[in-house]
């Protein structure tokens, strides 16, 4: 009976820890139109509105858990996070998201990846663009070019 109590106590602690950890997980809210307008005025070469719309288009695919995007005058870079069994269909997910973005933004060169490392870097770049003061334009272009080159293989 004593062993059973220990097992129950350990299981309860694990469940409680997992529940508390999931409460701490935050999801990033989409930017309000006013915030997008303010950011766009500060960064004319970077298209914040296009980035937000591209993320929403990527998230329309029900196999995509999370998306990050950065858009410039000619490039649109999108990274998507996919989990569980959907990871078995990475190529079809990339192709689907790329096709939808190509139709929505025909004048942009579209870059789509499911690589988790590139996703983290693009997410970091995206969040740095929303901070004040904004990073230098040439630094952003350099980082984005490197990420786009990495997406090609």
Outline:
With 153 residues, this protein is mostly helical. Helices cover 59% and strands 12% of the residues. It has six helices and three strands, in the order αααββαβαα.
Question: Would you write up a description of this structure?
Answer:
The structure is a single chain. This protein has helices at 2-24, 33-42, 48-59, 90-104, 116-129, 137-152; strands at residues 66-71, 75-81, 109-113. With 153 residues, the protein is mainly alpha-helical. It has a three-stranded mixed β-sheet with strand order 1-2-3, with helices on both faces. The longest helix is centred in the N-terminal third of the chain and has 23 residues, at 2-24. The chain is globular and about 65 Å long.
Query: Low-confidence spans: pLDDT under 50, at least 5 residues?
Result: none
DSSP E strands, number: 3
Strand coverage percent: 5-15%
Form type: globular
Mind describing the biggest β-sheet? Answer: 3 strands, mixed
Quote the distance from N terminus to C terminus.
Answer: 58 Å
Q: Going across the major beta sheet, what is the strand order? A: 1-2-3
Assign the structural class, choosing from mainly alpha, mainly beta, alpha/beta, alpha+beta, or little secondary structure.
mainly alpha
Q: Give the overall average pLDDT.
A: 81
Q: Using only CA atoms, what is the Rg?
A: 19 Å
Number of helices: 6
Topology order in helix (H) and strand (E) letters: HHHEEHEHH
Helicity, as a percent range: 55-70%
